[in-house]
Amino acid sequence: MRIAVPNKGRLHDPTVELLERAGLHIEDGTDRKLYADTVDPEVTVLFARAADIPEYVRDGAAEVGITGLDQVRESGHDLTELVDLEFGSCRLVLAAPEDGDIETVTDVAGKTVATEFPHIAREYFAEKGVDADVVEVSGATELTPHVEMADAIIDITSTGTTLRVNRLAIVDDVLDSSVRLFARPDAADDPKVTQLATAFESVRAAEDKRYLMMNAPEDRLDDVREVIPGLGGPTVMDIAGSDDVAVHVVVDERDVFEVVNDLKAIGASDILVTEIERLVE
Ligand SMILES: Nc1ncnc2c1ncn2[C@@H]1O[C@H](COP(=O)(O)OP(=O)(O)OP(=O)(O)O)[C@@H](O)[C@H]1O
Ligand SMILES: O=P(O)(O)OC[C@H]1O[C@H](OP(=O)(O)OP(=O)(O)O)[C@H](O)[C@@H]1O
Ligand SMILES: [Mg+2]
């Protein structure tokens, strides 16, 4: 199975990190290589531009791909979304000069809109019933209203800094995007593809969880159970020659601070908090 992955740009590092965490270590993945093997002899990684990945998957160069939803929508290809990997989150928005007269999408009728996403833009205006002239640019879209190339733009925003610096205000939301695992529809039910999706889901599930290990007096076990929220009961093991038992449990990261304090108050000792690589439920 081949999996298409961003070769550079902001999505490259988090995607490679995700593959590593899912147990798919990339072997010999030097910067300029197109293909790399993984520890799994059945899985090969293909490196491509984030914007080209939908095309590679559609054409069969790879069975699955990891890229932004915005890129898949812009490609117009019919791919099956398998897992929302929840990074690379951003919004595609319609924006116009702060001090101008465009306040709603209907104000854009008869005007020019610059964007790196012409396909999405045309679909959006068609859906809104607004007749706007969409022009394609390949970057620095925020500049175009200031050089009278366009009246408004459709572009990506995440922190909002670029819009602010260019004195542009958001007029409407066009699309919420994040990075997802996509498959060609005819490969979506392939057992290897399903395995891959499960592995990625397990990484995601583990991200906000922590593994707690401690020793606790056996006669305080009921109190221990009371302070530990969620995810089933703890695993309890005898410690030879001791009145303490070893307790292992998975808790939400946001509860760790409070739970550790409570456990100490109950008399637990040697409390160890570790990250979890994967959690298969
Ligand atoms: N603030 C953001 N700006 C642009 N893209 C973002 C942002 N946040 C998340 N993304 C996601 O990253 C994708 C862009 O990936 P790309 O590989 O082009 O990264 P890049 O760092 O912008 O590279 P380039 O140098 O080619 O502009 C977008 O399609 C979107 O899915
Ligand atoms: O809301 P913000 O956090 O400011 O992010 C949004 C900006 O980041 C991206 O540009 P990028 O850095 O990828 O440059 P590019 O236009 O050359 O692709 C995007 O095209 C916006 O311009
Ligand atoms: Mg960019």
UniProtKB/TrEMBL annotation:
Q: Which reaction does it catalyse?
A: 1-(5-phospho-beta-D-ribosyl)-ATP + diphosphate = 5-phospho-alpha-D-ribose 1-diphosphate + ATP
**Keyword ATP-binding in record:** yes
- Provide a GO CC annotation, any one: cytoplasm
Where does the protein end up?
A: Cytoplasm
Q: How is this protein activated or inhibited?
A: Feedback inhibited by histidine.
EC numbers, comma separated: 2.4.2.17
Gene3D superfamilies xref list: 3.30.70.120, Periplasmic binding protein-like II
BP GO annotations: L-histidine biosynthetic process
Stated role:
Catalyzes the condensation of ATP and 5-phosphoribose 1-diphosphate to form N'-(5'-phosphoribosyl)-ATP (PR-ATP). Has a crucial role in the pathway because the rate of histidine biosynthesis seems to be controlled primarily by regulation of HisG enzymatic activity.
NCBIfam families, alphabetized: hisG (TIGR00070), HisG_C-term (TIGR03455)
**Which protein, by its recorded name, is this?**
ATP phosphoribosyltransferase
Organism, as annotated: Halopelagius inordinatus
